[in-house]
């Protein structure tokens, strides 16, 4: 159908453009970040109803590669890549969890979690990595000199990069901050054959190094400053609306670290509005850990200034970032979506994650940050209890079992309100009966 995408500078006064198969991460004219732009006039040649029907027909089908939640929207994402170069692990299509019990605790009737961690590598990063690695495979087939793909990571990006590169037969390189990610996150790239470099620094230090080494065009950059990642991640907003029968929720809450996910979410929703699939936009809320909250600090100043900070150690390790690469895009998105930024202390995020777990969730600490932000915003009257709210759960709780074990053992630096320790007993029926009677009586009292 002649659909086309290209890179374009985000600065209004520049707007320089580059071919989609260029090895480029920032504008050559002004140094700003790039974004992927689409020929909306060509896309508008199909009506909103036609796009909806096409996306519905493809959704979770077995027709390669369109059963993927990302590639089912190929025309809106990366139309020029050849299907034989697409590297897909059936990403997207993750379920919406109706958080009925948790919502009722807060007086909300319509609270949902988008479980992006129910994916191959266990996080929403799969959505962007399938696009990036597919484009790399396409460029290699066209003669590009790329020998490896590299990223700095706090865990989830490295896992997604490693698994998609393994599926593609391309070498991956991951730079991780030593001692600052979970064991589960560390073992993922190791298992998938990545060259793992554990650096004695934090994420921001790893990011500085990877930006230097990827100036060599044989090593391709996979961090979210590469806007190909954003193109895959933008499908999460489209998919949420699709799963609600093309109705737009009132509020979407997303954890924020390097902040590429914020602009990605906004990008998909804006594209839907521009092509007539929706007529309104949700409010976007970004939730940050208090120990790594540069966006929140800027929000308190109405985004008039932004100052990077030295992020402190937080349980929400994947968003322990003090100098986010995608800050300009994130602020622009929040202004377009009447956005809010909130933060959460370590105790607040841990308790919120644990309380959610008691209602059937299994939360990563970053989802705990979003849940804690929700609680604070409801109590402050900034989210109405009648609103339809969706929280984006960014990763699977199984990647953070060390966090959960420490919480329930009560070994964190604060009281753990919802800790649930195993009861050690002798192997006698009377001892078990006594423990059951005591526990069930306690539960009855709590429910009265």
Descriptive account of the structure:
The structure is a single chain. With 448 residues, the chain is α/β, with parallel strands linked by helices. The protein has helices spanning 40-43, 48-58, 74-77, 100-106, 125-141, 156-168, 183-191, 203-213, 227-233, 235-243, 260-274, 294-300, 327-336, 346-357, 365-379, 401-409, 429-447; strands at residues 5-9, 17-19, 34-38, 96-98, 111-115, 148-152, 171-177, 195-199, 219-221, 251-255, 283-289, 340-344, 389-393. The chain has a domain at 96-121 and 230-409: Rossmann fold (3-Layer(aba) Sandwich), CATH 3.40.50.1100. The protein has 17 helices and 13 strands. Helix 5 (125-141) crosses helix 9, helix 10 packs across helix 11 (260-274) and helix 14 crosses helix 15. The radius of gyration is 22 Å and the shape is globular. The mean pLDDT is 96.
Q: How do the strands of the widest beta sheet line up side by side?
A: 4-5-13-10-11-12
Q: What's the rounded overall pLDDT mean?
A: 96
State the helix count: 17
The end-to-end distance, rounded to whole angstroms, is 63 Å
Give me the secondary-structure category.
Answer: alpha/beta
- Number of E-state strands: 13
Short description:
It is built from 17 helices and 13 strands. By secondary structure, the chain is an alpha/beta fold.
Describe the structure using short key phrases.
single chain, 448 residues, alpha/beta, Rossmann fold, 6-stranded mixed beta sheet, 4-stranded parallel beta sheet, 17 helices, 13 strands, globular
């Amino acid at each position: 159908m002649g659909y086309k995408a290209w890179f374009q500078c985000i600065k209004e006064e520049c707007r320089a453009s580059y071919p989609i198969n260029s090895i480029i991460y920032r504008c050559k004219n002004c140094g700003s970040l790039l974004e992927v732009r689409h020929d909306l006039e060509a896309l508008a040649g199909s009506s909103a109803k036609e796009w909806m029907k096409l996306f519905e027909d493809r959704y979770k089908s077995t027709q390669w590669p369109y059963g993927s939640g990302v590639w089912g929207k190929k025309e809106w994402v990366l139309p020029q890549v050849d299907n034989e170069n697409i590297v897909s692990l059936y990403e997207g299509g993750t379920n919406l969890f109706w958080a009925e019990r948790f919502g009722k605790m807060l007086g909300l009737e319509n609270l949902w979690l988008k479980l992006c961690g129910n994916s191959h590598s266990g996080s929403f990063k799969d959505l962007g990595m399938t696009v990036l690695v597919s484009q790399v495979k396409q460029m290699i087939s066209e003669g590009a000199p790329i020998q490896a793909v590299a990223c700095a990571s706090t865990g989830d990006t490295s896992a997604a990069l490693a698994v998609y590169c393994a599926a593609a037969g391309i070498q991956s390189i991951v730079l991780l901050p030593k001692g600052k990610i979970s064991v589960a996150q560390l073992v993922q790239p190791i298992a998938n054959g990545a060259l793992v470099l554990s650096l004695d620094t934090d994420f921001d230090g790893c990011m500085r190094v990877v930006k230097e080494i990827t100036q060599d065009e044989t090593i391709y950059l996979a961090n979210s400053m590469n806007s190909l990642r954003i193109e895959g991640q933008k499908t999460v907003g489209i998919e949420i609306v699709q799963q609600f029968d093309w109705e737009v929720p009132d509020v979407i809450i997303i954890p924020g670290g390097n902040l590429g996910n914020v602009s990605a979410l906004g990008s998909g929703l804006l594209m839907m509005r521009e092509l007539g699939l929706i007529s309104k936009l949700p409010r976007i809320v970004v939730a940050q850990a208090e120990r790594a909250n540069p966006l929140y600090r800027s929000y308190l100043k109405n985004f008039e200034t932004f100052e990077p900070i030295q992020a402190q150690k937080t349980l929400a390790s994947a968003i322990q970032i003090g100098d986010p690469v995608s800050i300009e895009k994130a602020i622009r998105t929040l202004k377009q979506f009447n956005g809010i930024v909130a933060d959460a202390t370590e105790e607040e995020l841990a308790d919120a994650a644990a309380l959610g777990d008691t209602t059937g969730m299994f939360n990563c600490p970053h989802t705990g940050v979003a849940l804690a932000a929700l609680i604070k915003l409801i109590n402050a009257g900034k989210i109405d209890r009648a609103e339809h709210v969706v929280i984006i759960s960014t990763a699977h709780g199984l990647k953070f079992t060390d966090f959960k074990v420490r919480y329930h053992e009560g070994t964190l630096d604060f009281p753990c309100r919802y800790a649930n320790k195993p009861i050690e007993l002798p192997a006698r029926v009377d001892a078990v009966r006594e423990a059951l009677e005591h526990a069930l009586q306690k539960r009855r009292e709590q429910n009265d």
